[in-house]
Amino acid sequence: MNEEKNINIEEIMQQIRQEILLKQATLDKDGSPLINLAGKRLNPEFYEHLYYAALTHDEIGVKLYVTKVNVPIIGPIIEKIRTKIHELVIYYVNQIAEQQLTFNRHILQAVNAMAQSLETETAQSDHEANPS
After folding, report:
1. What is the distance between the alpha carbons of residues 73 and 86, in angstroms, rounded to a whole number?
2. What is the DSSP letter of 68?
3. Which residues pair with 27 in a beta bridge?
């Protein structure tokens, strides 16, 4: 009389990942999740890597870090010059990083679209093979 339920761990993990993505605001412009986390044709490891890529695709940038100069009188002047040079370098590096972010988003969307296409084809071929 004790019925055991078949627990699908991968399905539970996909739901957890989807919730994390929604909370991390990894969303497309229309508000939908950037990637799909479920599928039958591709290995679950593929979707796991896609998930981690979605979480980290926009984590590019350089922060300002200038060490203190302990030289009397001219130390603050050297620090100020170094800070301004670092700010200029960071400005240009962040310009390139922004282009990389755009590229990352497009690649992630392309890989996701390819996975969805494979899943759709599989579903259609399965339906045609077994028209129940």
Report:
1. 21
2. P
3. 33
The one-letter amino acid at 129:
A
Q: Of 30-44, 58-72, 92-106, where does the model show the most confidence?
A: 92-106
Would you say residue 62 lies in a domain?
yes
Asked if the structure places residue 2 within a domain, the reply is no
User: Is 43 inside any structural domain?
Assistant: yes
The CA distances from residue 129 to 46, 122, 132, in Å, are 26, 10, 9
Global model pTM greater than 0.70: no
Domain assignment of residue 125, given as a range: 9-129
Amino acid at 38: A
Question: How much is the pLDDT for 102?
Answer: 87
- What φ, ψ does residue 26 adopt, rounded to 5°? -90, 75
For the chain, helix (H) and strand (E) counts, in that order, are 3, 0
Please tell me the predicted confidence (pLDDT) of residue 54.
79
Residue 91 is assigned to a structural domain of this protein: yes
Domain total for the chain? Answer: 1
DSSP assignment letter at 58: T
> Please, what is the Cα angle at 105 between 102 and 109, to 5 degrees?
140
